[in-house]
Amino acid sequence: MSLKVIALGTGVCADTSHTLVSRQPPGFLLDIDGMYLLFDCSEGIRFRLKNVEVDISQVTHVAVSHAHPDHAALPQFIQSKFVRNLYGASDPRATELYIYLPHILARDFPQVWNWHQPENAGRYWDDFVPEIIGMEDGFAKEISASVTLRARSVYHGHGRHPAMGFRVETPDGIIAYTGDTGVCDNLKKIAEDTDLLIADCQTRVGQEYTGGYGHMGPRQCGELALRSGVKELWLTHYYDFDTSDAMLAEVRAAGYFGKTILAVDGMVWQSTA
After folding, report:
1. What is the rounded CA–CA span in Å between residue 6 and residue 28?
2. Cα–Cα distance, 54 to 38 (Å, whole number)
3. Cα-Cα-Cα-Cα dihedral of 183, 189, 193, 194, to 10°?
4. Cβ-Cβ contacts under 8 Å for 190 (sequence gap 6 or more)
């Protein structure tokens, strides 16, 4: 089995702060021995899939951390995958799609879909019926042989926004993604002993807080990586207000000296197992 992670979007919801490099809204593609799982599904991600030579018809699993529009442009993704199938996708995976959402969002998503497709009267197309799977805290599902997706509730939107962090366990390694979150107890359960932790780092250097809206700063990400025994840390969803050196210094000040990278679009992580 092989395991690869491709950064499709490492930025934030607005591009006005992108002074260093152009970074799109969040999305990380896991290639697990040819099975594609997408962490978060931001606007335009179908075009970024094409840029890394992955046809949208091949993506069969989408795990959405929360419903903010920069993470959850699901109607666009579903429509694009369906139309790709309708107009000649040759891959048998074209009609297969599993979407994992916090349970409240899974409950309410049909209303969102009906707003976009009122002519379908609450239905998907006959030959394309995505399965919407609601996740509670502690969710675990084997999504293919020896590959398990786990989810834990995290703190975001003043604790009022249903949000999840994810962990994927495979024979070739463990990948964790915090989603958007502030410091909370479940993060260690998500991140423990991972080969790669992809951590929300939207709070600026020196402005870290606990509670509040719900994002982490680089020192908090470093503390999480240290406590959890993380082998490699990617900081993502950060603004470009702080220099790379300043952010990395904060991670080191937390006591974490593992490999740490400020993620940018197009980066690839490959398991060496």
Report:
1. 6
2. 12
3. -70
4. 150, 152, 154, 165, 166, 167, 176, 177, 178
Find how far residue 235's CA is from the centre of its chain: 13
Whether the model clears a pTM of 0.90, i.e. scores above it, the answer is yes
Q: What is the pLDDT of residues 50-105, one digit of tens each?
A: 999 999 999 999 999 999 999 999 999 999 998 887 887 778 888 899 999 999 99
Token pair, residue 60, equals 């069969």
CA pair distance 239, 159, nearest whole angstrom: 22
Contact present, 10 and 272 (Cβ < 8 Å)? no
Both structure tokens of 218: 């680089």
Cα dihedral angle (162, 262, 188, 13), rounded to 10 degrees? 0
Residue 71 DSSP symbol:
T
Cβ atoms 70, 25 nearer than 8 A: yes
- More confident: 120 or 11: 11
How far is it, in rounded angstroms, from Cα 89 to Cα 70?
27
Look-up of token digits 């293919």: 144
Contact call for residues 40 and 64 (beta carbons, < 8 A): yes
State both tokens at 167.
């962990």
Question: How far is it, in rounded angstroms, from Cα 229 to Cα 248?
Answer: 18
